[in-house]
Design a protein that fits this description.
With about 500 residues, the chain is an alpha+beta fold. Helices cover about 45% and strands about 15% of the residues. The strands form three sheets. Strands 1, 2, 3, 4, 5 and 6 form a six-stranded mixed β-sheet that branches. Strands 9-10-11 form a three-stranded antiparallel β-sheet. The longest helix is centred in the last third of the chain and has 29 residues. The chain is globular, with a radius of gyration of 26 Å.
């Protein structure tokens, strides 16, 4: 049963004055508390609670704040709750009294993520909230430009099975233990032959944990306890998805023709002030250009009047050029001769990957080669040049989308595109203008933002399995990144 119950409003306790001494006025978590009204979280998750059944639930605002702390500090649920006992800025942000020592069970955080945040629009909600704050404080303009790009995150079990990941985490635990207690080598369970069976690996990992807990003496050793809790969390994640050997919602995406990743993509829209106005999170194989319209419309919903869209060659598709023109926006995207409208019949089944310079089919398979044909000026004076992309027929034979795309018995499967279209010819003229060149200089800012997300917030790797987990991670990460930027811009504007 959802009951607002203990709302996160700080009660005046015996030691509350400590916060005025210990938590500086410019502390990031203090500034978030003073800037953001988190009541919108309660309204968003209310649908996932029962109004009549069960005991009163923990305040969802408190649980959401814990997710923000988990994202920022890169801690397991257990270590996060354990750290609350001694970390005063965490207590302040969560609006606990300084002397409080009793906290919720770590398992409630997992339940909140998987049960209470499902079917919510958390990503859009948080970004819209930060854009509202940025506009209210005057740190970004209403009429603005959007810089678009995507950044990839490797799946939690990147190219390895859960079995291999659990073995890796168990090894890290043992190394941490041996560093402080070499004599434990004789007490640890013997390493087993790799049977390839997940159940055997889980049994071995649990034995390692049991020996450490039975032996005792490591409770105050942070290096050991954090790695052991990380192992426990990995076991729980794996047992919760016991029937598959890797994240089923993650897909292979291509960074170049020769390099790939297994995971997810976060497609971003960023203002020149480096505030993220919109984002979508997809599996790794999804093309960047197809998300342009959605990102524009989400940004508009958040309150931005979009005047120009800046992106790399992935966004110069004919549909995007026409969309921008119809809506009075400048599309500042360098045209690739191969990014065109396709042959009509199977247009929606193929997408261009600008990094690999190849087309990818609906099933996520990339073309294996390409070949040009035709003439720049044929007998009728028409430019008939096309580029044909060849796909692996063996994959086509087994493809679930082969109907209407692949003809049974065919020895080849190609997708052909015109090298130029009238729309792209007009865009080529625009690319030569000073306006285009000046606007395109802004594009580097989104590369810097992607680097910040991966470096500061560990966004290069998914912290849990599934698209829901990646979306929650993305929502909390982008919220924190935006708030950090808003606070910095406001400080620069006021000179304080």
């Amino acid at each position: 049963m959802l009951d607002k119950g203990r709302q996160t409003s700080l009660e005046v306790g015996m030691y509350s004055g400590l916060y005025d001494i210990l938590i500086e006025k410019d502390n990031f978590w203090r500034q978030i508390n003073e800037t953001v009204d988190f009541s919108f979280i309660y309204a968003e998750v209310k649908q996932n609670y029962s109004e009549t059944a069960g005991r009163p639930a923990e305040c969802p605002i408190l649980l959401f704040k814990l997710i923000l702390l988990k994202t920022s500090y890169k801690l397991s649920d257990r270590d996060l709750i354990a750290r609350l006992r001694t970390d005063m800025q965490m207590k302040y942000f969560l609006e606990y009294e300084p002397e409080e020592t009793e906290f919720m069970a770590p398992s409630l955080l997992s339940k909140f993520r998987h049960l209470r945040l499902k079917n919510t629009n958390l990503l859009d909600l948080l970004l819209t909230k930060t854009v509202e704050i940025a506009l209210d404080k005057g740190v970004i303009e209403v009429e603005n430009k959007l810089i678009q790009d995507s950044t990839h995150s490797n799946a939690m079990f990147q190219h390895v099975s859960p079995r291999e990941e659990i073995i890796k985490r168990a090894k890290e635990v043992r190394k941490a233990v041996y560093a402080v207690a070499p004599q434990m080598k004789e007490k640890m369970p013997k390493k087993k032959e790799h049977t390839g069976i997940l159940e055997d690996t889980l049994h071995y990992a649990n034995e390692v944990i049991k020996v450490i807990e039975t032996e005792g003496g490591f409770d105050n050793c942070t290096a050991v306890m954090e790695r052991m809790n990380y192992l426990k969390e990995g076991i729980e994640e794996t047992e919760g998805a016991f029937e598959f050997s890797k994240d089923q919602e993650a897909k292979v995406g291509h960074k170049t023709a020769d390099t790939a990743f297994f995971g997810y993509k976060t497609h971003l829209a960023l203002t020149p002030e480096r505030i993220v106005t919109a984002a979508t999170i997809t599996s790794g194989e999804k093309p960047d250009g197809k998300e342009m319209k959605t990102l524009v419309e989400k940004s508009q919903h958040a309150g931005i009047e979009v005047k120009a869209i800046i992106g790399d060659g992935a966004y110069s598709e004919t549909d995007n050029l026409n969309y921008a023109k119809a809506n009075g926006m400048k599309l500042v995207s360098k045209l690739s001769k191969s990014v065109t409208h396709g042959n009509g019949k199977n247009k929606d089944k193929f997408a261009y990957n600008k990094d690999a310079e190849m087309y990818v089919c609906l099933a996520g398979h990339m073309a294996i080669k390409k070949r040009k044909s035709g003439s720049k000026c044929d007998k009728k004076g028409v430019d008939s040049r096309v580029e044909a992309y060849f796909f692996d027929v063996e994959k086509c034979k087994r493809c679930p989308f082969r109907e209407g795309c692949y003809t049974d018995g065919a020895k080849t499967k190609t997708f052909s595109v015109k090298i130029k279209s009238d729309t792209h010819i007009a865009h080529m003229d625009y690319m030569e203008t000073e306006e285009f060149k000046e606007l395109y200089k802004e594009r580097y800012k989104i590369e810097a933002k992607n680097a910040e997300l991966k470096g500061r917030y560990n966004y290069g790797t998914a912290q849990s399995c599934g698209l829901l987990g990646m979306t929650i991670q993305g929502a909390s990460t982008l919220f924190l990144a935006n708030m950090k930027r808003i606070i910095k811009l406001e400080k620069e504007n006021t000179g304080k």
